[in-house]
Amino acid sequence: MGILVAIEGLDGAGKRTIVGRIHDAATARGARTTTFTFPRYGESITADLASEALHGEHGDLPDSVYGMAVMFALDRAAAGPALQAACGDHDLVLCDRYVASNAAYSAARLGEPIGASPVVDWVTGLEFGRFRLPTPDHQLLLGVPPEVAMTRASGRAATDADRPVDHYERDADLQSAVYRAYSDLAATGWMSPWSHAADDAAVAAVIDLLR
């Protein structure tokens, strides 16, 4: 079985770039490597419905923390068989966002501390228990603070019409709370060992797992 690594962080933290760099570095070492990106916008109806909700559609759906979490969880559940197969066929499987994103955003929206969060327990039971998604072998939190990530996300939206800033990304207080939630998940080793790094150190942290 290959190593499953989840790359986590705020929108604008540079997850896509880091995933690409890790993929290239691992492939150069001869590792069979593949990637998944969640949510699977444009591929999954539940992911698209969630995106539409975050851009003002579907009534009060975005107001429901559990409702939105279910949408994102169903997207991953639908990809579960492909993810399991990839872990069997590759040395390294990279996920640009994974279950921790649901845990961090849900806890932050409800103001629940990670160490005593009913919604984190619920996400864990739903995605890893009921949906039987594979547990990551390692999780990497990109150490990019909220103010930097939000500036990047806004700049990206200004130049890429396909990536507009959504309701979550516009909320500075929420982004700060999510960053704290991610940091607490990493500090407690939620579901697997974590690394907390950025840029070259982030790439090296994952490549070291292949040794």
Automatic annotation (TrEMBL):
It comes from the Bacteria. PROSITE patterns: THYMIDYLATE_KINASE. One of its GO terms (molecular function) is dTMP kinase activity. It is an enzyme of class 2 (transferase). It holds the Pfam family Thymidylate_kin. The keyword Nucleotide-binding applies. Residues 7-187 form the Thymidylate kinase-like domain. Keywords: ATP-binding, Kinase, Nucleotide biosynthesis, Nucleotide-binding, Transferase. Its EC number is 2.7.4.9. InterPro entries: P-loop_NTPase, Thymidylate_kin-like_dom, Thymidylate_kin_CS. Belongs to the thymidylate kinase family. This is Thymidylate kinase. It comes from Gordonia liuliyuniae.
